[in-house]
UniProtKB/TrEMBL annotation:
Protein's cellular compartments: Cell inner membrane; Cell membrane
Keywords carried by this UniProt record: Cell inner membrane, Cell membrane, Membrane, Transmembrane, Transmembrane helix, Transport
Bilayer topology term: Multi-pass membrane protein
Protein name: Iron(III) transport system permease protein
Signal peptide: none
Family label: Belongs to the binding-protein-dependent transport system permease family.
Domain ABC transmembrane type-1: 51-258, 331-537
Cytoplasm among keywords: no
PROSITE patterns the UniProt entry points to: ABC_TM1
InterPro entries, A to Z: MetI-like (IPR000515), MetI-like_sf (IPR035906)
Positions of transmembrane segments: 55-77, 89-107, 139-163, 184-206, 239-257, 287-311, 331-355, 367-392, 404-424, 519-537
Amino acid sequence: MRRRSGAAWLVAAGVTAFAVALPFLALAYEAMQGSDGLWAHLFSTILPVALRDTLILLTGVGLLVAVLGTGTAWLVTAYDFPGRRTLEWALLLPLAVPTYIVAYTYLDILHPIGVVQDTLRTILGYSSPREFRLPDIRSMTGCILLLAFVLYPYVYIATRAMFLTQPASLIEAARTLGVSRRAVFWRIALPLARPAVAVGMSLALMETLNDIGAAEFLGVRTLTVSIYTTWITRSDLPGASQIALSLLVVVVAVVALEQYARRRQRFAAGAQRGGKSFERQRVSTSIGLALLALGLIPVLIGFVGPALYLATEAWARIGYAGVPPRFLSTVSATILLSAAATVLTLALGAAAAYAARIRPGGLSATAFRLSTIGYAAPGTVIAIGLVIVLGAFDRTANTLANSWFGVSTGLIFLGSGAALVYAYTARFLAISAGGMAAGLSRIPQSLDEVSRTLGETASGTLRRVHLPLSKTALAASALLVFVDCVKELPATLLLRPLNVETLATHLYGEAARGTYEEASISALAIVLIALLPVVLLSRVGSERNLRQGDVAPLPQSLPSVQQHHVA
């Protein structure tokens, strides 16, 4: 009876939730164990600057991604011009370029003696950087601009979906009452899409909080950068834990702000799906080309420029020195760690989602929600928590092995890559759990009842009914998890085993040393891998799918926006 009731799946979901929550519990405990006066020292020296820079960065990026994402979404939704269909999916391309790669490329492109400024000086008749130079990209303004031109697609995806699913009756009624097309945007379309804008902004801000490479390269001392330098440079684990706890407070504030902005979501989400949408306004050829050029600016800055630079630098590097000797081992380590984390993430995410289906109630719902909290936390926070937990386990195991058997076990977790797989799993479990839940939601409960009536167990029903019907959602989730693991930099920097490099850490190390040409091949490989989910998003986010209701225009919770679009 216990096997048939699915109690084992509820236990598995509970264990998964505890494993995800454990790093946060350890982080809070370690922060409270800090030495006397440490909080006072942090409040007087590190936190004021880090908190100020973090808030300025979040404010600037949030406002700019809202403008870029909403503006481009309305551009391709409300107007018909040459190249619009190409622009619709091209606006997604910056998602394929991680923020630290954009910072690394533009540091070299816009260097005072780089090709851009040299060309400008030649045109203007100057001979040296002392006579003329552009403002330094290594600044808060530069960081805000670069992050916004990479992260605006989060707002673009959700807002465009909302625009496309708004019923034509509202627009037609407004036009009948004499409202201009411009006023339709400000008084009808934008208010209805406000929850979608809030979701996209929140996701962009989460990515900003998780960033460590771009902020450090561009000289912005955020809370995330402070955690890394406090732990790595000063070996101060209690101090890093307390800064990480402060960062969690900022994360909670962002989530609360997003929930507040979506408090009227029922009104916005109540728009008809699959009905007639308002017609796009046809414009003249000259205006259409101007609109196309305007829409291509974010694509050129966020994707085309970095991609061309990386391809050129990688080709030059291979041409004069060949492929770096450790490149294959770096690729192998990246694929191995990311694949292991993907398999584990899919298994645990499926357990959490399936338990919520077959054992609905408070316990399974709580376990599912706890399993997805890692997506809202920066990688540095999870990594610091795991250093505390797994470091204590490794020390205890080594002590017991020495006392009982006279042998040393060494670093079982922290030295083997298992800690990094754990971090990837905790960080991206929301993607697999949400993807599985979305797939299961499309399967009628009647199939479960028929299977159980025929004597099948809960596990057998999953294997023979649910998995075959959810394989598309699982495949999409696996792709997203794998690519996110490949791109993840903060957790990888803190938890990778000694003498093990991934593509992300190799790029970070070479860029930190200023050897940009050595890092170009790894950066290009990351961008090419990251293009895969962008292609997926462009297909499932097609206009036909959105208007038929195949893609939910508004996610139901912050951590699951990606899998809702996949669903």
